[in-house]
Amino acid sequence: MYKQVKKLLRFDNYKMSKSTDFGYLSVILYLAPYTLSGKNICPWASKGCIKGCLNLSGRGVFNNVKQSRLNKTKYFFADRPKFLKQLDHEIKLYNKRAKRMGLKLNVRLNGTSDLIWENYKLENGLNLMDNNPTIKFHDYTKSLERMKKQLPKNYRLTFSKSESNHNAVQELIMTSKQNIAVVFNKLPKSYLGRKVIDGDLNDLRFKDPLNSIVGLIAKGKARKDNSGFVINI
Hints:
This protein has one domain. Strands 1-2-3-4-5-6-9-8-7 form a nine-stranded mixed sheet. Helix 3 (63-78) packs across helix 4. 28% of the residues lie in helices and 18% in strands. The chain has helices spanning 14-17, 47-51, 63-78, 80-100, 128-131, 144-148, 166-175, and strands at residues 9-10, 24-29, 104-108, 136-141, 155-160, 180-184, 190-191, 194-198, 213-217.
C-alpha cells in the first residue's frame, strides 16, 4: 500500500535557496535513499556513500520528513504514471512561480536517489526533461553508463566520486570533459589534474565550466568518514 503525497518537490533547502542570487528558483525531489523503502533507488551507491548519506542532515532528522520521503518513494513504485503526472504538474507550477519572481527554474530530481529519470516516460511518451524543454534539470550520478548516454539537452549530469569507483573517474578524466563531484574535508585548488570549483556556492551544476572537479565539503555523518569516500587534504 502507498499513500499519495500532496507535494513532491521542495524549494526551501538552504543550498537550493542560494540559487536565487544567480537568477534561478531551484526545486528538489527527496526520496528515501538506498533500500529504506524496500526498493534500491541508489543502485551504484558505495559503502561510504551509504554511511555518509545526507538523508539525515538538516530537516531529514525529523520523523515526519523521513515518513514523507518514504511515502513518496512507495508512491513512485506503486503508481509511476500518476507520480510522473503529478511531478510534471508541479514542475510547471514552479516554472510559473519562477517567472512571477523574475527567475528561471532549475529542477533536481535525484536529491537523495540515483534514478534514471531519462528513462521514465509520461503518458505522452516523453520524459520530464523533454516535456519541459525550457527548464534546466541537473543531477549527480555514480553511473558511468549514464554519463556516456546522449541525454536531453536541458539535463546535465555530474559524476559523483566514491571510494570504490576510481576506475570510472579515471576513464572520464581521460575520455571526456564531463565534471566530477568529489567530497573533501577542505577544498584544494586542484585535484586529479583539474581545477576544483566550489560546489557549495549554489546548486546550479549546469552552469559549472566543463573539465572541472566540483568540490563539496563533507557534511553530517560524512565528516567522520574513514572509508575513503571523503578526500582528506
